[in-house]
Protein 1
Amino acid sequence: MSLTAKQVLVLFFIIKSGFVTCAASKRFNDDVSLVLRVGNGDTDNHVIGSRSKRDTSSSGAVTMTNLQVVSTIQSHYAKTIITSVMENGATSGNGTETSFMVQIPEEAFISSFNMEINGTWYASAVLSKAEAQKIYDAARNQSQNAGMVSSAGPSGSSQETVKYRKKFNVNTNIAPGSQVTFVLTYEELLERKLGKYDHIISVRPNQTVANLTIAVDIDEPQGLTSLEVDEPSLPQASVQSVSSMVKKIQYSPTVAQQQAQNAVKGIDGDFIVTYVLQDTNNGGVILVGNGGYFVQYIAPTGLSALPKSVYFVVDISGSMSGQKIEQAKNAMLAILDQLDTSMDYFGIVLFDDTLEYWPDTKSLVQATSERISSAKSFANEKIKARGGTDINSGLVAASQALKNQPSSRASIIVFLTDGQPTSGVYDTKVIRQNILQETSGTGIGIFSIGFGTGVNSDFMRAVSYENCGRYQFIADDAEASKELENFFRQLGSPLIKGVQVEYSNNLVDQTSLSNTTKCLHFSGSEMVVVGKLQSPTCPSSWQSRVTGQGKTTNIDLYSSAATCTNEAFLERLWAYKKINSLLDQMNALSDNDVLKKEVEAKALNMSLEYNFVTPLTSMVVVQSADYQVRNQEDLFIQSLGGGMNSKGTGITGSGSSTKCLSLVLFVAVMSYMGINVQLGF
C-alpha cells in the first residue's frame, strides 16, 4: 500500500503534534481486561522490558506533560483519539505506580490502545482480568514499562457507576527516566436526543498539564443550524466555521486556567459539543460509501404527536433511602407536569415488597390538572424508602394495565429502580418471561432507568430490548433529578408506531441490514439503518420506504435518491451498528437457546474482523514478527482505527522519536472516557 500526499501530511501532523483521533469503546465486562507491556523478551509471560527490581524509594515524580484529544465526527460517527505523555523524573531505582480513571461512552467500542517508548510502538492485548493482572504485576515488579486497562466496577456489575459512561481502571508502570506515550482510540455513533447531538469528552487528568489540547472536527453533509460548546474551564474554545457542513473546534487551557478550577487537580469536567442539523426530507438522508456500504438517517418532521398512555413504575425499597428517594420524588413531581392534559392517560405504581397504586386501582385515567395535582400529593406522601424490591409485581401490574389500551395510543412504561430483585420473584429470567406474557403483541414500550450504584444493567437492558424500549443509566449525583426529567422529555412526543423500513431486494443485500423496525419513534430522535448494496458501486437511483402508524393517518415515506461518497468510515459504521444489534439480541436470549450461540458467533467474527473490543473479544500482543509494525504506513492505518485483525499485527516497530505523544494520547483518552489510569514508574 502506498500513502497519498494527503495521508502523509496527516500522518506527519499526527506524529509531530501529538493529536490523535479516538473512537468509542463498547461494553467491557468484568471478565475482560486490556494489558499493554514492553521490554526485553520473556516468552513465558509475553512481558518485554528491562529487568531491574522495583524500588518504591526511587526519587522523582511521575507527571503528565501532554494530554491531547482529537475527535473527528463524520455524519454523526465519532472517532476519538486520546494521546497522553507521562514522564518518570527518577533517574534510578524502580517504578512508581500512578492511578487514572477512564470513562467510556456506553455505546462505544475501543478499537486500539498503543504505547510508544523511545520511538518504538507496542500494541495492547485484551485478556481475562486475572491473566492481565498477573502480567502487569510481573512487569511492574521488575520496573518494566507496562499499562493495563480494566473495568472498575465490582464483580457482577456493569461498571455504570459514572454518568453517561462505563468506568475503567488503567494501571501503568514506567521505568525510571522513561517517557511513555499512550494512544487510545474509541468509536461511537452519536445519538440524536431532543433534536440535538452531544459529543462529550471527559477532561479529568487529576493534575495540571503543561500541554493540554482538545480538537473536534465536524463534517455533517446535512449542514448545521446551530453549534454550542460548553467548556469545563476558561478559555472559550475557538470555533472555525469552514462552511455550514464543516466546523473546527479547538480548546487549549493554560496551566493557570487549569489551576483556577483546582490548584492541584486542574480541570475536572466535561468538554461538550452540541449541534443541530438542518431538517431533511422525511424519507431520510442516505449516504453510500466505498464498497457499497450505506447508512440511512430517518427523522421525520411535521408530524402530530400521538396520544400516549404512561404507567410509572417506581422503586421505593429501602436501598433508595437518602438522596436517591428525594431525587426520584422531585423528578416525579416535575415529570407529571410534562403530561399533555388534552390527550394523555397515566397511572402510578410504587413498589417495595408490596404495591401501592395511584389511583386506587391499577387503571389509567386521563391527565387533567386536578388529577395531576392529586398524583403529586400521592407522590409527596408515599414516595418514601422502605422494604424489599419486588420488581416482578410492579412491572407485571403496569403491563396488565396498559395492554388493553386503544391501539391508537402509544403505551409506555417508565421503570425506575436502583437495585436487583430482593422480594417476590428473584430470577430475572423468570421476571422477563412473566413480562413478555403480558406485553407480547401489544407494542408496549418499557423504558428503564438504572439509578445509582448496584443496578443490574444487563437485566434492565434486556427488559427494554425485548419490550420496544431502551435503557439508560443515571448516576445518583446532584443532577439526577434533571437527568430523570430529561429522560422522560425524550418520550414526550411519540410520532409513529410500528415503524418499518423496506429496501428493494435488487438494490440491497437484505442479510446485511441492521434493525429495520422500531415500535415507537419519538420527536427529536432518529432511526439509523445500515446495510450493504448488492453491488459495490453507488447506484444511479435509490428505492426505500418508511411506513408506520401516525396520529391521524398511516405514514408512507419514499426515498428515491442517495448521496455518493468515497468515505471509508461507512463500512466501520456498518460494522459498529451490526455488532451492537447482535450483542443486544444475544443478551436477550437465554443461555440454553441454540440461536444464542449462532448470534454470538456472528458478533465475535465481526468484532475480530473489525478490531473492536467487545465483551467477546481480546486484543493481544506477543513479542514476535507477527505483531511488529514494520513501517509508518502500518502505524498510520492503526491510528485511523483500521487496526489489526485477528490475523494481523500489533504495533512493536521502531520509528523516529515522537516526543512520547502516544502517552499523552493515552492519558487524554483515559481522561476523556473516565477510565482510571494507574501509571507506574
Protein 2
Amino acid sequence: MASDSGDRLATLKRCLSVLRDARNDSEQFAALLLVTKAVRAGEVDAKTRRQIFDAIGFTFPTRLLISQQAPADCPPHTFRALGLTLLACFCTDPELAGHSQILNKIPTFNDVLLSPCDPDCTSMVDDVYQCLSAVLATARGPRELVTKGTVSALCQAYLNGGHSSERALTLLEGLLAVAEAKCWQRDAPQLLAVLSKLSSDFLKAEDMTKFELCEVLPRFIPLSPPLTENSQGSECLCRLYKGLADVLGSKLSQSQRDPALKLAASLVQACGAEWIPAGSAGSKFLALLVNLACVEVRLTLEEPDPLEVEGKKEVVTACYVLMEMGIQECLREENPLLENVQKMQLMRIMEEAFGAVIFYLRQVKQEELQDPFIFASVRVLGAWMAEETSSLKQEICELLPFLVDYARQLFKEGSPAVSLPQAELVSTEGSALPQDALRFLLPGFCHLTAEDKPRDILIAEGAPALLCEYFLQQWEVLTSESTAPAPLTSTEMSLQTMCGIFLNLAVTAPDLVRRDKTFSSLMDVLLKSLPRLLPQKHHLVLAANLATLGLMMARILAGSAALQGTQRAKEFFGAAIRFLSQAHVAQADPSSDGLALAVSPAYASAWDDIAELWFLGMQAWAGCVPLLPWLPHIALGARWLQGLAQLLSQVAPASVDCELVTAFQAVLVELARASQQCRDVILSHHGMEWANLYGMAALEQCLAEQGGASSTLGGK
C-alpha cells in the first residue's frame, strides 16, 4: 500500500508539471482531472497543496467557475465542480482561505447552495461547505460572509433539507457565535424561519433528538427583540415553552437536564419571563425551573469538588440566570406569574442556594479571581443582595471583605476574562472587556451602608475610596455619551445608586465624610457636574441625586476651601436652586375657580423617583445657609424668594400639604435669619400675611423678631 501511495504521489507530481507546462486547455484539463481526483481522495499534504497552488494559482479555478462550456460527454457543471474542488483544497491552508480571491467567491458559493442539487452535484455542495467553513475561521471571514448574503443562503439550504443541510446549520451556529447582532440585523426573517423549524422539531421529537436540539437552540435565540415583535417569534416561544415543560416535567439524567436548563436560561436572557404563559401551568413551570436551578447550584457548590465544579460551570451559570429571574418574579406585584405561597416557597429555596454561592466564594483562591465563573457568582449574589436585605446577613457580612477586594481588583486591573454565555445579559461581540463587578454590587452596598455592622466593614475595607474612583470613571463615561435623550443606561443607574450610598454615609457617618479626603474629591466633582447636567432634562433623576448629595455633603464640608464662595461653588448652589425652585407650579384647580400647587410638568414623570430627594435637598439647602454666609446673595440673585412668595400667594393654601409647607418654611426662615435683604424681600411680598395663612409659625416669629430688632436699632 505504501508503494501504491508513492506511485500516486509521483503521478500527481507529473500532473503538476503538465499543469505548469501545458500548451493548451485539453492537456491542462487532463492533468487537472488527475489532480482533483487526488485532492478528493485526501492524498494531498500541505507541501503538495502549496505546489498545486503555485502551479495554477487562483486564475485557473476562477476560469473554471465562470466557464459556460463542458468537455464532451461530461455534465454541464464539470468545470465548475473542478474549480470548487481546487478552491476547497486551497482553503485548507488558513492563509489562502482568507485571501481576497477566496472571499470574492462567496457569492458563487452561495449560488451553489441555493441551486437544485442533482445526485452528481453533491461533491460541489461538499466543497462549498468546506470553503465556507474555512472562510468562517479567518479574521475577515465572518464579516464578509454576513455582508455577502451567506446567512440567508445557509438558512435556505437548511430549510430545503438538501444534501448535507446539517452542515448549513453547523455553519450558522458558528456565524451566530461570532457575529450574532449583525446576522440578526441583516437576516432576521430567514433566521426566524430556521428557529421556527427547530422549535417545531423540538416540540415533536420523542427521542434523544429533543436533547440534542436543546444544545443547538440557544444559539438561535436572539438577545434582540425579533422573538416578541411578531407572530412567528411568539409561536416559536410557545413551542419552546411546551417542549421544555415536557422535558423538565419528566425524569431526566444529568446529561439530559443540563442542556434543558441552558436552553431555558437563554430564553430568559432574551425575553425575561415573557415566554412563560400566565395561569396555573405557567406558574408551576416557573417554580419548577427556579427550583431545579437552585438544586443544581446547591449540589455543585455546597461540597465543591474542583474537578466537578469545573465541568459544571456553564450549567450553573445558566442556573444563576434562572435564579435571577426567580428573584424578579417573586418581587413582581403587577400581573405576577407566581402566587404568594409559591413566592414564599421559592424565596426559602433560593436562600439556601445563595448560601451555597456564598460558601463557594469563601473558598476562592487569589489565582482563581480571573475565572469568569467567579464573576457570574458575584453577579448573581449582587442581584440577591439588591433585593433581599434580611436573610443571610451574617454570611454576607463575612463575605464583604472578599467582595470589595474582588471588585477593586477587577476595577484597578481590568479583567481580561470573557464571560461565560449566561454571565452577561448583554455581551459585546468579539471583545474581552474588563468585567464590571461593582455595577452589580452597588444596589446591595446601598442597602448595607444604611446598617451599622456592614457599613463599618465596608468602611474598614476601603469601599468609600473605591466607590469614589468608580464614580469618577462612570461620570466620564456618561459625559462622553450622546447628550440626546435615551433609555436609562447602566452607567447612569450606577451613578444614581452610588449617590444613594454616599448619602447614607453622609447621614450616618458624617465624621468619615469630614476626615476622608475621598469625599473632598467627590465634592469637587459634584460642584462642577451639577451645573453641566441639570439643563439636560432627560437626566433629571441623576441631577436630583447629585444636587441632594452635594447639599448634604456641603453641610459637613462647609469649612473646606472649595466652599468659600468660589465661582464653582456659586454655580453649584445656583444650579441647586434651579432644581429645587422649578419643581412646583401654580395651575388651574378643576374643583374651584382658583389655582392649586402642583408638581411641574417637567418633573411629573420622574416625581416618584425624586420626591424624597427634593425634600431632603430643601432641608440640606436650609442647613447650609448658616454655614455659608454668601448663600443668601445667591438666593437673591436667582430671585428664588420672589418666585416662592409669588407661588404661595397665588395658590389655595389647602393645595399645599404640610410636608411642603415645612420644606418651604425651613428655607425661608434660614434666609430671613441670615440676611436683612432676604427679610425685606419676604416682607415686601406680603410674607407676614401668607406665613400666617399657611401656618408658618416659625417664619412669622422670625419676621416679627427681626422686624422688632430693626425698629429698635433704628430708634437708637
